[in-house]
Design a protein that fits this description.
Blueprint lengths: L1 H16 L7 H16 L7 H27 L4 H13 L2 H16 L3 H8 L12 H48 L6 H4 L1 H25 L3 H11 L8 H12 L2 E3 L2 E3 L2 E3 L3 E3 L6 H29 L1
Antiparallel strand pairs: 1-4, 2-3
Family: Belongs to the CobD/CbiB family.
Main location: membrane
Keywords: Cell membrane, Cobalamin biosynthesis, Membrane, Transmembrane, Transmembrane helix
Length: 307
């Protein structure tokens, strides 16, 4: 029951305050990760195996002390509860995700493509300089659906499973994946450990997120079929189920070619229906919020049952 109450309290804090605009721990962690990368990356002539070992070491150096500190603080009466609530509040980002996506939609409704490209570039890793309205809408909907898992449901899951150490390690590992988990010449080997750890930590949350989209979406049968038939062909084992189920639940066609770091990547189509329009960004946000409501209700019911 305590876990469900902390879920609710953290969600309310995020709804009321959003992310801290100054001194956000994840920003500080990102700066620390950049410093560790500069020290651990090694010389240009390092072979792939050595680079991969250096990446493993960098992940361990960054995550092990944070996990230990979170565990020790969780053992302190009262303070442990406050730290747990603070960690969960800082780990989830419902309001931030909503505000970033709505800002893109506002720019599209104002027919300001340059502003829309700038704003969508803050939430996606693909190249955005030449995107048209449909491509911007698709990128934003994809980001909302995928980040529903990364920024909300994964954090809730690991908090329920492993309390403060769980949510801290999950969110920091997710941050490292966002920084290093690219198949570029620089990060293909060095970022291997960060990417694989994120895959492992997100395997169950991703499928629970996809199930949530299926249950609260307008087209559950289509969501299930897209998840079952299309997700296995997506390059990411976790983003595939989340985005396929979300696209099917919304009745939209996502995926398709996209350019990353100057290179066009052929991606399979996910979902079924029309290409997303600016108004579909709001529909994606509603789907994520309804899924969050489902999680909170199930969490409270489970808490009462166990109590």
């Amino acid at each position: 029951m305590l876990t469900a109450l902390l879920w609710l309290m953290a969600t309310l804090l995020d709804h009321g305050w959003g992310e801290p605009h100054r001194w956000h721990p994840l920003v500080g962690f990102g700066g620390l990760a950049n410093r560790v990368e500069s020290l651990a990356y090694g010389p240009p002539q390092a072979n792939p195996a050595a680079r991969r070992l250096r990446g493993i070491g960098a992940v361990l150096v960054l995550l092990a002390p944070c996990m230990l500190a979170a565990w020790l603080l969780s053992l302190v009466p009262l303070l442990g509860l406050a730290v747990a609530l603070g960690a969960l509040y800082l780990a989830i980002g419902v309001r931030s995700l909503t505000e970033h996506a709505e800002a893109v939609a506002d720019a599209l409704r104002a027919d300001d493509l340059p502003l829309a490209r700038e704003r969508v570039g803050r939430i996606v890793s693909r190249d955005t300089a030449d995107l048209d309205e449909d491509q911007i809408s698709r990128a934003t909907v994809e980001s909302v659906l995928e980040n529903g898992c990364d920024a909300i449901f994964g954090a809730l899951f690991w908090f329920a499973l492993a309390w403060t150490p769980g949510v801290v390690v999950y969110r920091l590992a997710n941050t490292l994946d966002a920084m290093w988990g690219y198949r570029t010449p620089r990060y293909l080997d060095f970022g291997w450990a960060a990417a694989r750890l994120d895959d492992v930590l997100n395997w169950i949350p991703a499928r629970l997120t996809a199930l949530s989209y299926l249950l609260v979406g307008a087209k559950p049968a289509l969501a299930w079929r897209c998840w079952r038939e299309q997700a296995p062909f997506w390059k990411s084992p976790n983003a595939g189920p989340v985005m396929a189920a979300g696209a099917g639940a919304l009745g939209l066609a996502l995926g398709g070619p996209a350019r990353y770091h100057g290179e066009w990547i052929v991606r399979p189509v996910l979902g079924e229906g029309l290409a997303p329009r600016p108004e579909d960004i709001g529909r994606a946000i509603i789907l994520v919020r309804r899924s969050l409501g489902l999680w909170l209700v199930v969490g409270v019911i489970a808490g009462v049952a166990f109590a």
